[in-house]
Each structure stands twice: as C-alpha cells, then as structure tokens.
Design goal:
Layout: E1 9-13, H1 17-27, E2 32-36, H2 40-56, E3 67-70, H3 73-77, E4 82-85, H4 91-104, E5 110-113, H5 120-123, E6 133-138, E7 147-151, H6 158-170, E8 174-178, H7 187-203, H8 209-217, H9 220-223, H10 229-236, H11 238-248, H12 260-267, H13 284-303
Parallel strand pairs: 1-2, 1-4, 2-3, 4-5, 5-6, 7-8
Antiparallel strand pairs: 6-7
C-alpha cells in the first residue's frame, strides 16, 4: 500500500509517556515524526520509552528510525504538516505552547491538543489562525487504545478536522468527530459520570469500594466491548428505557463537586495505589498486578479488535 503521508512530517510536543506513545503510532506507519521537548532528561529517555513499548507488544524497533528527538520547537514546526501537543494538563502551559505554534508553524499546518478535558476554545483563546486548532484526545496507552477524539471548537474548520481524521484512520486509530467543544468531550464525560455515581455509592455507605469494582466487572462491564449504551437502549427498547429512567434518574447523584470521601482521603494523604491506600487498600504487588492485567488485556483485545458497531 502506498503511503500517502510519506512526505509529511508530524511533530509531537512533549516526550512523556503520552507523547512517546503517540509518536510511536506514526512512526510505525513510516511517517517522519519529531518529538520536541525542552527538558533534556525527557529527550534522553524518549527513545528507550518507545523501545520498551514496542518490545512489550512483541514488535521490533525498526520504526524508531522514523523518529527524531529535538529541542527547538520553532525550527521543527516550521515545516511540519501536523503538530500534536502532549504537554502536562495545565491550561496556561498549553496556551503558551499554542501561542508559539501559531507563530512558528506553517500556515497550513494543523495544530492539535491532546488535552483530555480542557475545552479547545480555552486553549486557542485570543490566538489568530484558530481555524486550524483542534483537539485530538488520545487514550492511554495511545499505542494500544484505538480511540482518538477529534474535537471541533467554534473556530475550528471542518477541513482541519477531516484532515486529522484521515491521518488517524491511516495509522490505524479509531477517530470520532466531536462536533461540540464541551468539557471532557465524549468518552471522559461518560467515564466520569460513572465514577461520580460509583464514588457516591461508597460515600453514602451503600456498599464498599471493592463491591463497586466487582459489580462492574461482572455485569454490564462484560457487555461494553460489544454493546454500547445506545445500542443497549435500542436493544431493550426505548419504552423500557423511558420507564426505568422515570424511576431512577431523579435519585442518581448529581453533585457538582468531588465527593466528601475523596476530600477526606486527600487530607490524609491517601492518594490511591501510589500511597498503598485510596478508596481501596493496595499492596505494591496488588497494584502492579492491576497494571499488568490491564496491559495484557489491551494487548489481547487489540489483536482482534471489536467492530460490532461498524455497520
């Protein structure tokens, strides 16, 4: 298959786990990719991160030849076709980066942010040429999770969105077009609606934290890879969905702030697996087992990805 992006250049801003994982995806399709980061330590460890990712997947590391590690952002984006910012989730930092990108990138270069929740309009606020600024929210780890949410803000052009979607399709991702620039976009809004209810049930003493995870993993969680929530609503019938919602919706948690139990845990320094105590207690081996099980599962399902919704 001819590579339509053979002469194109992708710049990834940020040499963290997400930036390196995103760069790996493009490099594996023989697209010239540059990882740009001002921090020397991040630059020095970037190649090794990618090599570890590839070996974890049982892949050779020849694609690293398509990756360049650089420091000078202005120079690297001057002839780039696509830029994906993967810096820490801090609005002021992203605004600073995009001010530089708009200044130094070629006029037809598409500029994308990998923010997971920040509205693109906030990142692009006050900048010229914002029609080429869009969101591309990749999920961690980006080389294994197929979804990329391509976010169109009020000032983003449809052409920029479509160009990015075409690129992402080519490199084997599953892009979706988010047509309204809402906080958290699509998937994170649904994920955190579930988290809010789950944590509220623990907070209110309905059940303990472990029970929540058991319940999800052994009920609707089993169906989710092949039956999305809209498919499920249509499957059971909108008449039944309506009847259920008439009973349950008014009683679901609707808090606009984190639950008290989260605040209490933070005050005690109980932050989760990294402190061996969070909503649940963890030994180091248990925490490592959860992480390993997740990677093993993703490696397995991405070998034969689910596609029941591709009608």
């Amino acid at each position: 298959m001819t590579n339509p992006y053979y002469s194109k250049k992708v710049v990834v801003v940020g040499a963290g786990l997400m930036g390196c994982g995103i760069a790996q995806v493009f490099a594996r399709k023989n697209i010239q990719t540059v990882i740009c980061d001002p921090v020397e330590e991040a630059r020095l460890t970037a190649t090794e991160k990618i090599r570890d990712n590839l070996h974890l997947q049982g892949l050779d590391d020849r694609c690293i030849d398509f990756i360049t590690i650089a420091k000078n952002l202005a120079k690297e984006v001057s002839d780039a076709d696509f830029v994906i910012e993967a810096a820490p989730e801090k609005l002021t930092l992203k605004q600073k980066i995009f001010a530089e990108l708009v200044k130094y990138a070629a006029p037809d270069c598409i500029l994308a942010s990998n923010t997971s929740v920040i509205p693109i309009r906030d990142i692009a606020k006050g900048l010229e040429d914002c029609d080429r600024i869009i969101g591309t929210h990749w999920w961690n780890p980006p080389y294994l999770v197929p979804l990329v949410e391509v976010v169109q803000s009020d000032c983003s052009s449809l052409a920029s969105v479509e160009s990015m979607i075409a690129l992402l399709n080519y490199v084997g991702k599953k892009p979706i077009h988010v047509k309204k620039d809402v906080t958290g976009f699509v998937a994170n809004r649904m994920q955190h609606a579930l988290w809010r209810e789950a944590i509220a049930l623990v907070n209110d003493g309905v059940c303990d934290a472990q029970t929540i995870d058991i319940a999800v993993k052994n009920s609707f969680g089993l169906r989710l890879p092949v039956l999305g929530p809209i498919e499920n609503a249509d499957l059971v019938g909108l008449d039944l969905t309506n009847d259920i919602h008439n009973v349950i919706l008014a009683d679901l948690n609707a808090a606009h702030q984190p639950a008290d139990i989260i605040k209490e845990k933070l005050a005690k320094g109980e932050l989760g697996m990294k402190t061996n105590n969070g909503l649940r207690k963890w030994t180091n081996s248990q925490a490592e087992s959860v992480k390993k099980d997740l990677i093993d599962y993703l490696l397995k399902v991405t070998e034969t990805p689910f596609s029941h919704s591709d009608n």
